[in-house]
Amino acid sequence: MNSQRLCDLSGMVALVTGAGGGSRGGLGPVIARTLARAGARVAINDRTAEWTQATVEELRQLGLDVEGFPADVADPEQADRLVQSVIARFGQLDILVNKAEAHGSGRRSDQVTDDEWEHALAVNVHAPFYLSRAAVRHMRTRRFGRIINVSNISAIRTSVLNGVAYVATKEALYGFTRHLAIEVAQHGITVNAILPGFILTPKLAGEWPEERIEKLAATVPALRAGTPDEVAALVAFLASREADYITGAAIPIDGAVSVVPGGRVAAESAFV
After folding, report:
1. Which residues are within 8 A (CB) of 215 and not within 5 positions of it... i.e. 6 or more apart?
2. How would residue 266 be classed by pLDDT, with cut points 50, 70 and 90?
3. Burial class of residue 169 in the structure, from the number of CB atoms within 10 Å of its CB (0-12 exposed, 13-18 middle, 19+ buried)
4. Judging by beta carbons within 10 Å of its beta carbon (0-12, 13-18, 19+), is residue 203 exposed, middle or buried?
5. Distance of CA 251 to CAs 44, 153, 255, Å?
6. pLDDT attached to residue 260
7. Does the reported pTM lie above 0.85?
8. What family is reported (predicted)?
9. What is the DSSP letter of 226?
10. 114 DSSP 8-state letter
11. Domain edges within the chain
12. How far apart are CA 7 and CA 5, in angstroms?
């Protein structure tokens, strides 16, 4: 019997974007913590040094091997420099988790401003492209790599809650994932997307009233919200060597919302 630990990331280096804020943040800090606990050395990225450092300090207090790399990943030059800085610091980059995102405003097409539309494209589509392009150049030479794009269930089931800019860009990220997977499969690089549904992050719990959380959770077939740890566990598996033959996939983690007859719009209609 093989006694090797499942999802052992020892000897690997991971870059997680949108991972700032520590316990005040969203999925990013939890993903970073999970990868570090699995043995990876983790580069923490967010747009500001203060937000980045919040996660670094919390995870170092847990004895985890992490380092901060603040940068605006929607800027192509900063995105490229970020990847090169991580490689220069650690000597390699094995795992890229594109978590940074522009959140949905819920606005309809006739309400969305040009700035909101451009911002959603910049963060949700352009940034993963810039970072993946830089990472692939390095991963290809090592014949190993893991790129995990955090999309959303909205990519396959339209969400009336998130709004048009968010839905359109998350679906674009899904398409980018599939195409890039084909391009790099022969080089030992896997590219996958995860599609979280209603996940109760600390940030969301602090912003939403309990009544609203309970009402939305009731529209989920599992009758509850997902947890950040559940999402992070999926990321860790896709980052591991056990997932070597999984690529081009888009995996829902949504308590069965994506298979509700009529899709997510029907499920959310009771909420809105």
Report:
1. 271
2. very low
3. buried
4. middle
5. 24, 9, 12
6. 86
7. yes
8. Belongs to the short-chain dehydrogenases/reductases (SDR) family.
9. B
10. H
11. 13-269
12. 6
3-state helix, strand, coil in the chain (%, to 5): 50, 15, 35
Q: Which two tokens stand for residue 79?
A: 């995105």
Catalytic residue among 130, 166, 174, 245: 166
Nearest 5 degrees, angle CA 117-CA 133-CA 165? 15
11-25 pLDDT, tens digit per residue, is: 999 999 999 999 888
Of 101-105, 193-197, 267-271, minimum mean pLDDT range? 267-271
Domain 13-269 listed as CATH 3.40.50.720: yes
Residue 227: DSSP 8-state: -
Per-residue model confidence as pLDDT tens digits over 81-119: 999 999 999 999 999 999 999 886 667 788 889 999 999
Active site residue 166: yes
Task: Taking the CA atoms of 27, 31, 37 and 43 in sequence, report the sign of the dihedral they define.
Answer: negative
Q: Look up residue 115 and give its two tokens.
A: 């700035």
Mean pLDDT to the nearest integer, 190-214: 93
